[in-house]
Amino acid sequence: MARDKVGRFARLKARRAIIDGLIASHRGRVVNTAADSVVADFASAVDAVQCAVAVQTAIATENARAVADGRGARGITDVTLSAPHEPGLNRFTWGWSSLGAEFLQHLDDGTP
Which of 5, 32, 71, 104 is placed for a possible disulfide with 66 were both Cys, Cβ 3.0 to 4.6 Å? Predict the structure, then answer.
């Protein structure tokens, strides 16, 4: 980060704008932030999961654009959901597909 603090901060702000907009559009509100993390509250678990999928998609798209533009941005977006729910209730209609193993730079043993 020391090489391009201004550029990195600008990219973080741009991604936060995307995330904040998606949270609001999914009936959510930002409760707290710290560094590059965001804690949000949603009207329902369905809204939370749909927002999480939208965030993953939007950030992946933005990262791909940055690489294509030569800005070289690469990042990992992790969404953790925790909320009370009704047992046996499943209203989610989306699917997922694996993108393969990811190796994290900050782990010495190369754990995927």
Answer: 71
Residue 38's DSSP bridge partners are 33
Decide: 87 and 59 in contact? Cβ < 8 Å: no
Q: Which residues contact 95 (CB under 8 A, 6 or more apart)?
A: none
What pTM was estimated for this model as a whole?
0.63
Distance CA 30, CA 74 (A): 24
> 């932030």: which residue's tokens?
33
* Cβ contact 67:73 at 8 Å: yes
Taking phi over 0 as left and psi of -120 to 50 as alpha, with beta for the rest, 16 belongs to alpha
d(CA 66, CA 75): 11
Residue-wise pLDDT for 44-72, tens only, equals: 888 998 999 999 899 888 877 776 776 65
